[in-house]
Amino acid sequence: MSGAAYAQETETTGDDDAVQETVVVTGARGMPRSVADSPVPIDVFDEEQITDISFVDTNDVLKTLVPSYSLSRQPISDGGTFIRPAQLRGMPTDKTLVLVNSKRRHRAALVSIGGSGTQGPDISTIPSSALKSVEVLRDGAAAQYGSDAIAGVINFILKDNAEGVSLTAQTGQYYEGDGTQYLLTGNIGLPLGDNGFISISGEYSDSESTVRADPYCEAWACTDPDSPLFPSFNTDIAFYDEEAFIAGLPDANINDGDVVQPWGQPESEAFRMFYNAGYDFGFGEFYSFGNYSSSEASGGFFYRYPGNGTIENLRLEDGSVWSPLAFFPGGFTPRFSGDVTDYSVVGGVKGETDTGFTWDLSGRFGHNEIEYTLENTVNPSLGEQSPTSFHPGDLINEETQLQADFSQSFDTGLASPLLFAFGLSYMDESYELKGGDPQSYAAGPYAGADPYGFCNADGTPTAEGLGVIATGSTLDCADDSDPVYTVVGVGSNGFPGYSPEFSGEYTRDSYAAYADLSADVTDALFLQGALRFEDYSDFDSELVWKLAGRYEFTPAFAMRASVGTGFRAPTPGQQGTTNVSTRLPNGFPVATGLFPAGGPVAQALGAEPLKPEKSTNYTLGFTSNWDNFGLTVDFYQIDLEDRVNAVSTQDVSTDPTSGGAYDNYLALVDAGVVGAESIGGVFYFTNAFDTTTQGVDIVGTYAKSWANGQSTDFTASVNYNKTEFDGDIPVVNGTPIFNAEDQYDFENADPEWRGVFSVTHRIGDFSIVGRANYYGSYKNSDSGGADGNIQEFGKEVLFDLEGSYQVNENVRLSVGARNIFDEYPDEADYALIGDSCCGRIYRSDSIVDWQGGFYYARVAAEF
Predict the structure, then answer these.
(1) Residue at 307 is within a domain
(2) pLDDT, tens digit, 9 for 90 and up, residues 27-75
(3) I need a labelling partner for 171 at 20 to 30 A (CA). Which of 205, 559, 759, 854 fits?
(4) CB atoms within 10 A of CB 318
(5) CATH number of the domain enclosing 284
(6) Range of 830's domain?
């Protein structure tokens, strides 16, 4: 039966006299509570609602169900191509704690480049076919669950069936005729003796790439011979062979054809499985669950054109002239691939004594690894000896945790027993950057000028120079533009490999203790308080607290509120990651280096070691139910101090007259950065600023039963979210660490309003689901808006429609379409926001989907 995308406080059956309360374990320690009785907002989505969302990725399922959960597609973002950044209540993923069966989920190995440097769990490794339900706590909960739970908690509850088999097959394609997707999922439940179960779920998915791009044609490079810019490009590049260039363009991008610069979703393939098992021994229950996931995805980087600093003429050892155009006559677009392996295991035993004392002893281990491959590129400094494919290195994140949780109820004369929950935890974390193959980071002969000593300082040839001239070389030492003086970049272009200097392992451990008290003080008033202490080996200790309460004025109306503090300790990955990639700090693609804040390079640029982020959370709301109508409204505010973010890219130049840019170049040289001459920008993570986030979540549900046996469910979920800076932006070396453009975009680049409105109607064996996804307007600027360069993107409503038919007791058929009217967001205006260049039509980091309509068919069977 097809279900609507609820964010509901109660589950309704469509019968006016039958209303079921949903019971949740998230947000309460030691004893489940109903959602309606919770003092904090919690959304609950059952198996039916989850499986009826047509997306392959569990991230997309959450985006569809929870308006305050947003997700963007960033096709040129290094590892962000494979593990997409998400937000809850305007906060990056790493400020939302992810649990599976109420146990912390390990982080992915990827540290997002730029922005907040997010390193959170990879939710896509959790197949939706393994889920019994999802609980989303929309409130800070660090005092109960620990670091990261600033914006909220997402708890994935696994299936626990001891029998039954379910299979689902789905395929679909975008209206544009690309991006074909295939999905196969299955689950089987088996008994373990008379008192146990094991539920195994698997998923295989395959998604082809999409292209939403125009030809790459800019003032500095053009691949469209019909454009008026093309002749100018031809004239400006002295070694450019127009005929060979045009003939080579189809091969510049080895995967997506047609355009040299693809913008769209990457191609991907994945196999994922989860198991969940339990056995009741009488005195207690043994439980275990875990997963294995293997996925591969690949996408393109920025197109490399003749004369861009990578494709340059070089003077070889025999005096001849050579260019990477010999490998790639039409230029090239590096192809970046990642193989992601993820596995985990959790085991424990829990029970309850006759006196009501509960105990839960558990241990977990999680591993996430990304193996990078870079193809269709060169190490420019190796010249004609360069390979065209590389292994830049691997990233590995591992976590081990031991945990003990206890609770005891006491009769104190209150309306309910006083529940005292407490626990202890130990966690060990490690983050490793494994070095790449030597050619991926090697500094070849062309990393410096005149590598073979052909010229003297006064512009005359040396004996070696005279020797190659005598053999016919065109060497001209008096001409400072002669290829003998050309200096090019070091390392595999697009993603230089991790050298021994920037490889290594970063580790830490931490200890925690918490206590939680809760009770119905009266029949109408529920109160809860929590306190948590954590101590990290790489940071000082933290003590955080939370108070929450609910007062029921009538059975149909209650108020609830909470206040608490939170924190997030920067991960070992955030403290240790390094990267050199192509970015657009000034609307023009240049090699840009990210260096660890605590390392010598970043500190030479003014960086300081990272410290924890701290938050104060406030919520105030009400819940109401009248017959089959339910409404919840929750206002919230999150004050976040010392927020971790990348500083604005600082220019680097070898030109002594360029001021601060030259100083940055000298700092890189002094810090021993190989290939500093080829780097055009640098940045690092820092505790950049304080912010205040304010918003409101509104959830309304209504169920209607009709006299003819039909039923209709209505759901409306709306979120408003606004984040602003609190105080001044810090200044380093006389310059704000966050420039005017970045400040403006930080506050304005995402829609403040987001809504999901859905209707499900059932007629016997038929059901139909309609869904409207609303995105409010948003803005972007090229210069902070000071000169009026602001583009406002309009509101968008994307409609989904699905129809299903229950063929028999076992088989169900569904057909439908997402974005059925094929809507797209406004096209980016390059004249106003200069970072939307290079064939890009839409803002690629927009949370508004820009792939167009998608139609699909699905068959599901249960036995």
Answers:
(1) no
(2) 766 666 667 678 888 888 888 888 878 787 888 888 888 888 887 766 6
(3) 759
(4) 12
(5) 2.40.170.20
(6) 11-213+261-300+334-449+486-862
